[in-house]
Amino acid sequence: MSRVAAVVAGVTIAAGVASGQSAAPNSQPNPYRTIQNWSKLPGRTIGQMATIDIDRQGNIWVIERCGGTSCADKPDAPAVAFNASGDLVKSIGAGIFAQPHGIGIDRDGNIWVTDTQNVPGKGQQVHKFSPDGTLLLSLGTAGVPGDGPGTFNGPSDVAVAPNGDIFVGDGHGGNTNARIVKFSRDGKFIKTWGRRGTGPGDFGTPHGLAFDSKGRLFVADRDNNRVQIFNQDGEFLAEWTQFGRPSGLHIDANDTLYVADSQSDGEKQNPPFRRGIRIGSARDGSVTAFIPFWNPDPKASAPEGVITDAAGNLYTAGNNFPVVKHVKAK
Predict the structure, then answer these.
(1) For the chain, what is the radius of gyration of the CA atoms?
(2) pLDDT given for residue 319 in this prediction
(3) HSE (side-chain half, CA atoms, 13 Å) at 169
(4) Is the pTM of this model over 0.85?
């Protein structure tokens, strides 16, 4: 493992990855106007929403946990899509999940969803759906937690590389796993890396995944208050702490990095960072903008997922409130 022992403003420089911090935490400008209650979910109570993505038609997809914290024994379809106006246009996955968590859409428009808990016969899996909602592939063993090549324990997120290889952030804190699992495009196990810990390549909770234009894998290592960067063989490249306590990641076509920090409270949890969306560069690690969490209630759940559309609008998803839209202020 090649690593340059240099730290600048809390940013590790490693394996040729340059990093920088342009301002103190929470001080960057907010260039967005926030539109709350943007999405509409008629006839349903809004439960927990953990992650968000966008398809080729511009529909915004989120996981909605069937009006509460779980979908076990509930009839609702938890993977739901909204059009540009915030209207519900599609819902898939009814009857399949225990507690759906991560969602990712590949280049072919297939929808991938992780199931982070288990009940008898369900859970601890990663499911692939076609754009019309047909179940195409399932990874893991239904209802069986484990740390082998054919089992998961708390899979938080999934991302598909341009060549079709599948990467799963396997673990959600506590006694669950803390690793990345790699599969071929047809679901054959390739390798795994990581363990619970705080060192380079270790994980607390690998809560979110994203690829940059170079194919590097960015991991939201939430419990360790850092973003870790790897190549697709699992070689550690860098860790960045300047984006706060990351729950969700998104990297756009220009290598702009968007990080949802849902847990920093400025005092006890990862001080001095506060909750919100940090925006910067996946190339050099600089942070250029910050959207503070818009709900002043300290007990309110901040968003864990963030995505952008072709026009540069941001969308965030969190617990028990509709998808929120953020538009560039004029």
Answers:
(1) 18
(2) 81
(3) 35
(4) yes
Q: Tens digits of per-residue pLDDT, 97-120?
A: 999 999 999 999 999 999 999 999
**Cα–Cα–Cα angle for 246, 202, 157, nearest 5°?**
50
- C-alpha 39/C-alpha 85 separation (Å) is 8
Q: For 270-322, what is each residue's pLDDT tens digit? A: 999 999 999 999 999 999 999 999 988 888 889 999 999 999 999 999 887 88
Q: Are strands 324-328 and 166-170 parallel, antiparallel or unpaired?
A: unpaired
When pLDDT is averaged across residues 23-49 and rounded to a whole number, the result is 92
Sequence-distant (6+) residues with CB within 8 A of 311 are none
Q: Rounded distance, CA 62 to CA 153, Å?
A: 22
Q: What is the DSSP letter of 267?
A: S
What's phi and psi for 181, nearest 5 deg? -120, 130
| Number of Cα atoms under 13 Å in the Cβ half of residue 149 | 8
The token duo for 75 is 């009839």
Q: What kind and span of H or E run contains 239?
A: strand 236-240
CA dihedral 210, 164, 114, 211 (to 10 degrees): 0
pLDDT tier at 18 (50, 70, 90 boundaries)?
Answer: very low
Give CA angle at 298 (43, 32), nearest 5°: 75
Query: Tell me, what amino acid is at 137?
Result: L
Tally Cβ neighbours within 10 Å of residue 135: 12
Query: How far is Cα 39 from Cα 81, in angstroms, rounded to an integer?
Result: 10
The dihedral through the CA atoms of 238, 239, 243, 248 has a sign that is positive
Distance CA(122)–CA(135), nearest Å, equals 14
pLDDT of 22: 55
DSSP state of 104: E
7 beta partners: 12
Q: Which of 274, 319, 296 is nearest to 34 (CA)?
A: 296
* Better-predicted residue by pLDDT, 102 or 15: 102
